[in-house]
Amino acid sequence: MQNPMPLALPDLQAAFAAHVAGGDRADLAAAVVGDSISAEARLRIYRHHVAYSLGSALAATFATVHALVGEAFFRSMAQRFIGQTLPTQPVLTEYGAGFPAFVAGYEPAASLPYLEDVARLDWALNVAFHSPADRRLTAADLAGIAPERLPSLSIAVPAGTALIGSCYPLHRIWNASQPGASAEAVDLSAGRANLLVLRRADDAAFIVLDAGEAAFVASVVEGTSLEIAAERATSAGPSFDLSTAFARLLALEAFAAPQQKLGDGPLKAPG
Amino acid sequence: MTKTRIAIASALAAALVLPVAAQAQGNTEKCYGISKAGKNDCQTATSSCAGTSKKDAQGDAWLSVPKGACEKIVGGKLTAAKG
After folding, report:
1. What's the CA gap between A58 and A99, in Å, rounded?
2. CB A171 to CB B29 under 8 A?
3. Is the pLDDT of residue B55 over 90?
4. Which residues of A touch B66 (CB under 8 A)?
5. pLDDT digits 0-9 by tens, B11-31
């Protein structure tokens, strides 16, 4: 058997990665020993195994996308993504951050314009699920603060929180795609949805916000004071009711517990 | 303190003492939740033969048509609307 010039280790690794991503590499096949199974067939096992495992990981993370398009289509779409984007770290639950953007540009899925938003929601739920469930801000944390100082407060949101806006009734699409969902059709023209993804004690979940609440949360996430958040919310949703919305978000444990006691030290100047 | 600021301060303070019923309502409202089985980071395919198919998975992407729950989603346009 002819001994080819061995590839240097970095070249061998690069060739293997390229092969796994879908490119046939004659130089790699030449570097692999074949016996009863040819070198090419041996290498194909790796390629298919990587594709299958990563495709399964994506199907688990993007379960709603998977349910919407079906196994065959999903595998096909995932395969294209995997060929472009191999994982850069070993944790499979962190693989797929770029998948929603990829879905948006994936032409065979163009007939499902909401699919990108579904992918963003699936990803946000996945991130929330794998975020720590730290202590949350409660009304009691704020009770000791003089009311006139409340508007100047900036409060944080916990890791894993995400606000997902969609032109489509995303919560209904998501609901209709769950196992055991009713066969009832979802009308895409039912209007936009603002969803708040939360890490809860035992799971990840999302709730539907109205336009004012969504503007309020977006402002809080940005780091503004509650006063500015309230003003933006009122502009976005004229029927916004600050007391109801703030009580609701506190009850949902949507805010992070303060790192230090709130109200201590100098507060940021209002504005 | 401006009038708006006073109104915001009172509204925020009121939220802290809203009757328990209102807060409980927040807790029991409709949430769409997920919980997952643990996913092994060194995930293996269900069958070690899963990767040995001779058929290359590349190349058929453009022929496939979604066949899933998307049949339930009706109306709207075929082009993506951004916003």
Report:
1. 9
2. no
3. no
4. 68-70, 73, 108-109, 111-112
5. 999 999 987 555 555 556 778
Q: How many domains does the structure of chain B reveal?
A: 1
Specify the pTM: 0.86
B19 within some domain: yes
Q: Which residues in chain B touch residue A262, judged by CB atoms under 8 angstroms apart?
A: none
Contact A75, A57 (CB under 8 A): no
φ and ψ at residue A119, rounded to 5 degrees: -65, -40
Is B55 part of any domain?
no
Give CA–CA dist A141/A224, Å, rounded.
Answer: 19
The answer to ipTM > 0.90 is: no
| Shortest Cα distance, chain A CAs vs residue B21, angstroms | 11
State how far the Cα of A136 lies from the Cα of A252, in Å rounded to an integer: 9
* Domain of B21, in residue numbers: 1-30
Residue among B30, B58, B74 minimizing CB distance to A22: B58
CB-CB under 8 Å, A57 with B43 = yes
- Read off the pLDDT of residues A149-192 as tens digits, 9 standing for 90 and up: 999 999 999 999 999 999 999 999 999 999 888 888 999 998 89
